[in-house]
Design a protein that fits this description.
This protein has 280 residues and is of the alpha/beta class. It has eight helices and 15 strands.
Length: 280
Amino acid sequence: MPTQVAYLGPKGTYAEQAACELAKLEKLDQAELFPLPGLRSVIEYVANKHCEAAVVPIENSVEGGVSATLDALWSNPDLFIKRALVLPIRHALIGSGSLNEISEVLSHPQALAQCSGWLNKNLPNAIQLPTNSTSAAVKMVRGSKFRAAIGSRAMLPEKDITELAYPINDVAGNCTRFILLKNTESSKKGDLASIAFSLKSNTPGALLKALDCIANLGLNMSRIESRPSKRELGEYVFFIDIEIKQKSIDMHNDLLPKLKVFCDHIVHFGTYSNASIEID
């Protein structure tokens, strides 16, 4: 029976490319990719067990953490990260007209931000319009002489569009980490462990004491990020990735009990492998 994997659609997004690669890594030979409109809807779809897995972006090397993903994960603590994949992002400017005719540029807000320098230099008078996804933007500019979209070269087989410029991302090493989520607990083996927690009190040194629990085990924290708890001003949730590939650590016995002393609520998203691929 096919494994249904939800991702941020429509077809042609970087998320679809990541979903294909993650399905291969997980040996989901009969994976059926199912596009949905919005990151929260993707995560809630798997959380509500309408599908077995979902692929979402969690972090970009230029723009940082994807807030919609982080907030949705905190709201759905019964989800587990099965695997992660770092995908290089190479943006193209795509349209039906010529570069000197463009007065509007459409794309996902992250893509617009990742190309802001190029846009300011080459299309300083063009209005930047956000869309739900890069592929949605490409579909919206088909046939227009004054509109262009920022998206993946994978969309170029679409009719009536051409590549106007490539690559246009400001940072050559731009990449996004995507995660494969499941609603069943993942393996306890892997390179990374991801947790999130809120503190019992907002007092001097409270966060440091929690972080010391990790540091005292000789573990490196490869990512630390905070998001508002949305309960009151000044209260935050902390998301942390911990490198454990060279350590024999049992998260449930060695670390989480120590953190509970200082934390009001802790979510362990699992231990998993982190891979990367290269694209042209």
